[in-house]
Design brief:
Elements: H1 3-23, H2 29-33, H3 35-45, E1 60-63, H4 69-79, H5 85-89, H6 119-138, E2 151-155, H7 157-161, H8 163-175, E3 180-186, H9 203-209, E4 213-217, H10 223-235, E5 241-246, H11 269-278, H12 291-297, H13 299-321, H14 326-334, H15 355-369, E6 375-377, E7 403-405, H16 410-423, E8 429-433, H17 441-449, E9 455-459, H18 477-482, E10 488-490, H19 495-507, E11 513-516, H20 532-537, E12 541-544, E13 551-555, H21 559-572, E14 577-581, H22 585-590, H23 593-599, E15 607-610, H24 619-622, E16 627-629, H25 640-646, H26 651-667
Helix pairs in contact: 1-3, 1-4, 1-11, 1-12, 3-4, 3-10, 6-8, 6-16, 8-16, 15-19, 16-17, 21-26
Bound molecules: thiamine diphosphate.
Thiamine diphosphate binds at residues 29-30, 65, 67-68, 115-117, 156-159, 162, 185, 187, 189-191, 249, 263.
């Protein structure tokens, strides 16, 4: 460690301070205190190539404490990722490359979007699982494999207070994820004041209890101790590592340093000048980066290029030695599926049964054929139909296993599959009951923000669950999920729709998909002229018609067969009804207006929607004459059929709603 290294650390500290001072808002304190850790990682310990942020041989860096974005941005500038001093000046400005919290896909070198505390820790665990799994698939035996990489995650008190980090850390311990290094910024401060107000447990002891390799560094300015601990953490390959580092937030600011006042906001001109004076810098100069310091830090580019070259050679040698794995390697590197992948989809036309079983059949086939598709459940694998006899669990000893057992940890499960997707190449899935999707919503939302190709299979998708009662009966979840931008909610009506939906999901990876699947048997909708693949991909389609229709019945999932029955009853009374199956509103809305008008003719204003959940979002199709058949309160305990009847999800209710809608529409007809 040279004098220039120390100067570079202080320059990074002061840059964070200057940005917040100039902007009038932002978070400098933690970026200042962790500057030594970041410098060691970006200059010495991490494998990365600033000239190629997507390099496959790189380590991953996740800033779980996303508010400290300046910690990352200063390193991305100093090491040569393409950020400029001007980008730093524009931190938090509209349209800047340096938004308030790091955003994946927006700034080169940002591996995930962070800000909601705790998510980064859990997603980093998912990245570590993906690294480990990829290595197990491609190069399990070599001690010094090109596929051996590390995930470095920096977290604060807030991250470790959040439950999702505890869920993931517990699982990471069980799985022995040696690829994961968690640097804990133990500064005893959060927004409301000292952590003694609300966070007094012995964190290292907790992590030891999880089975982690735990080290503490008493002084975050002690570069020797930091380096030794971080290197030991990296070299521990059988257990995840926690490095708890004691720091002083905002140090060396004499007034705000070490207090909650250093968390956010400008330090003020006097204190900013004092920090510079204490660090031996010109107190009147802002954004000052001495040329020798920048030359020194930009050596990271040469270091990265060397590592990259070495890795290319090692990877080339590995390829020569493993010709049989070249295709999989290429597919994982490029995130593509083999051209004939769809042959793996089972033909499920004419199959009756619960859609959760159809989904299980699809996933069993896909996981058997495509190494890209792997996943599991939060301790409900037999209920969500993903307990496949031939698949081995992913464990510490067998990381090539493809069945993921998350334990009862829905929130971490969703963050972990995001991490697996962020690794690239994989198409992970996660399953639980629809009612428990609320437990994982924040991670799903973040996955949607990052447009990650993750698929959730939520089973037990309505009050028809029955005997388990209202706690287990989803009511508002379907609309709640549809309310998250970028999430496609798919509720197939039968086995054929389920398989067809999966085809579209795998063909067009573009963001999270949430399947809602039934526990109870539904008939196969063998309607003449149906083309499940084509129809389902359009989100909504005419399933049965009596042209010209007087009323349109729009239904999803298990309620589609109810609508078909209602149509027959209405026909007996001389009322022409059309049934539209709408497995995915988001896909339907992407179709052009001409198609949507073909399915839902604007002049047919008598409309009924049928879905065993709240109607909220359906009003977009109902207009002033339409009427939903829906569930607007919590469910009831009892047999599913009885509960459905009590809640008004019946053929009779659909017929009655259709008649009322027709009357309304006739009354106001021109
Ligand atoms: C889920 C979530 N809740 C609340 C916040 C708001 N928030 C941002 S930072 C912070 C305090 C975090 O304290 P700590 O991790 O100790 O960070 P430090 O003050 O040391 O920078 C809070 C409550 C958030 N970003 N995410």
């Amino acid at each position: 460690m040279t004098d220039l290294d120390r100067k570079a650390i202080d320059v990074a500290r002061v840059l964070a301070l200057d940005v917040v001072e100039a902007k009038g808002n932002g978070h400098a304190g933690t970026a200042m205190a962790l500057a030594p850790v970041a410098h060691l990682l970006f200059q010495e310990l991490m494998r990365h190539d600033p000239a190629d942020p997507g390099w496959r041989g790189r380590d991953r860096f996740v800033l779980s404490a996303g508010h400290a974005s300046l910690l990352l941005y200063t390193q991305l500038y100093l090491t040569g990722y393409g950020l400029t001093l001007d980008d730093l000046r524009r931190t938090r400005a509209f349209g800047s490359r340096t938004p308030g919290h790091p955003e994946y896909g927006h700034t080169p070198g940002v591996e995930m979007t962070t800000g909601p505390l705790g998510q980064g820790v859990a997603t980093a665990a998912g990245m570590a699982m993906a690294l480990r799994h990829e290595r197990a698939l491609l190069d399990p035996d070599a001690p010094d494999s090109p596929f051996a990489r590390t995930v470095w995650c920096v977290a604060g008190d807030g991250d470790l207070q959040e439950g999702v980090s505890a869920e993931a850390s517990s699982l990471a311990g069980t799985l022995g994820l040696g690829e994961l290094v968690l640097v804990y910024d133990d500064n005893g401060i959060s927004i409301d004041g000292p952590t003694s107000l609300s966070f007094t447990e012995d964190v290292p002891a907790r992590y030891r209890a999880y089975g982690w390799h735990v080290q503490t560094v008493e002084d975050g300015e002690d570069l020797g101790a930091l380096r030794a601990a971080l290197a030991a953490a990296r070299d521990e390959r059988d257990r995840p590592s926690l490095v708890a580092v004691r720091t002083v937030i905002g140090a060396p600011a004499p007034g705000r340093g070490g207090t909650a006042a250093a968390h956010a906001g400008p330090f003020g001109a006097d204190e900013t000048a004092e920090v510079k004076r204490l660090l031996g810098m010109d107190p009147h100069a802002s954004f000052a980066v001495p040329e020798p310091v920048l030359d020194h830090t930009r050596a990271a580019l040469r270091r990265g290029a060397r590592m990259h070259d070495d890795w290319d050679k090692a990877h080339g040698a590995w390829r020569t030695a493993h010709p049989g794995l070249a295709d999989l390697d290429e597919r994982l590197a490029t995130g593509t599926l083999p051209p004939d992948w769809a042959a793996a989809l089972p033909g499920l036309g004419g199959t009756a049964g619960p859609t959760r079983a159809a989904n299980g059949a699809v996933l069993e086939a896909l996981t058997g054929r495509l190494p890209q598709v792997w996943g599991g459940s939060a301790d409900l694998s037999s209920s969500t139909n993903v307990a496949f006899p031939g698949r081995r669990p992913f464990t510490a000893d067998d990381p090539a296993g493809t069945s993921l057992h998350f334990g009862v940890r829905e929130h971490a499960m969703a963050a972990i599959v995001s991490g697996i997707a962020l690794h690239g190449g994989f198409r992970p899935f996660a399953t639980t009951y629809l009612a428990f999707s609320d437990y994982l919503r924040p991670a799903l939302r973040l996955g949607a923000l990052m447009r990650l190709p993750v698929t959730f299979a939520f089973t037990h998708d309505s009050v028809s669950v029955g005997e388990d009662g209202p706690t287990h009966q989803p009511v508002e979840q379907l609309q709640g999920l549809r309310g998250i931008p970028g999430v496609d909610v798919v509720r197939p009506a039968d086995a054929a729709e389920t398989a067809a939906a999966w085809r579209r999901v795998l063909e067009r990876a573009r963001g999270p998909v949430a399947f809602a699947l039934g526990r109870h048997s539904v008939p196969a909708l063998d309607v003449a002229g149906r083309d499940p693949d084509g129809d389902v991909a359009r989100g909504g389609y005419v399933l049965a018609d009596s042209p010209p229709p007087a009323v349109v019945l729009v239904a999803t999932g298990s309620e589609v067969s109810l609508a078909l029955e209602a149509r027959e009853r209405l026909a007996r009374d001389g009322i022409a009804a059309r049934v539209v199956s709408m497995p995915c509103v988001e896909w339907f809305e992407e179709e052009d207006e001409a198609y949507r008008d073909l399915v839902l003719p604007p002049d047919v204003t008598a409309r009924v929607t049928v879905e065993a959940g709240t109607a909220q979002g359906w009003w977009r199709y109902l207009g002033t004459h339409g009427e939903p058949v829906s569930v607007e309160g919590f469910g009831l305990s009892g047999p599913g059929d009885r509960v459905l009847a009590e809640m008004g999800i019946t053929v009779e209710a659909v017929v009655a709603a259709a008649r009322r809608s027709l009357e309304r529409s006739a009354r106001t007809a021109p």
